[in-house]
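Internal tracking record. Fields below are filled automatically when a chain is submitted to the structure queue. Please do not edit lines marked as system-generated. If the sequence contains nonstandard residues, flag them in the REMARKS field before resubmitting.
Queue: standard
Priority: normal
Entity type: single polypeptide chain
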Amino acid sequence: MKSNLPKNPPRASLPSRRIMRSCHSDPERSEGEESPHFTHGTTIYPVRKYVLPLRAALILPLCLLLAPPISSAQPAQHVSQPAPREIHIFAAADLQPVLPALADAFTHATGIKLIVRYGTSATLAKQLLAGDPADLFLATDFSFPEQIVASGVADSTAPIPYARGTLVLWARADSPLQPLTQDTLRDPRVQSLAIANPDHIPYGRAAVSALTRMKLYDQLKPHFVVADDLAQTAQFVESGKTQLGFLSLTAASTPHAKQLGSFIRMPPAAYPEIRECAVVLKNSAHRADAHAFLDWLRSPPIQQTLPAYGLDPIQ
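SYSTEM-GENERATED OUTPUT FOLLOWS
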């Protein structure tokens, strides 16, 4: 069967868009090469002038959309980190064998770091009264914290006790006076005795009180070798400059002191109680954290660990 459809449908009704070769020259083409054009109706449009720029205008945005992101040249915004929580503590030198372990435990539990300056309680009290910044003062007795309270720079009306100290008599292991007993101080062979300056070292004052109560002060005073602090007292005995020395139990309980010599405790009734006290400074920027550490130090679980460091609990 023959189809009734015409083989070549009329195209007259369609607008003419045929591309044709033009005799017009294109300055961007080589000589003798014709530039392609397209016609719309009776108007002739150069392909290079209109079609190619249009194609580029359409492709460029697509390329920008599809292209992988380019790393920004702008510097990354700085995100401020919170300042680390720290407590600045003025601590008596006698606490140097004690505080590092306690500080590590407290930091592990709370994230608060302890920055400690060591010295004699008398020296640290003078520095605080002169305006040196600190958050907490840990002394080896109550008298120096009382000075801070009386001056009005503490945030409490009284020193806060955190431990009790013990006075001991210490000698080298190779001393002829070994083994030590309560009667060693009455031995006529005792010719030298190291004692921390009683004017500003609480354990020196405790030693004077003990010798006075034992009625030995007048007998032994000519043999005193007065040291600036407990560390120098131990050094006098260790070097052989003195035969005996009065130390704190904390100082005598260090591994070095135990290896080098031995000690005996002085009778607690022979000297006033050594109440080691603290105060938080009124102008501290970290008063809450300072009180948190002091409360932690006074808590029953921590108080139970103090005898391992040569300190007794406050109760």
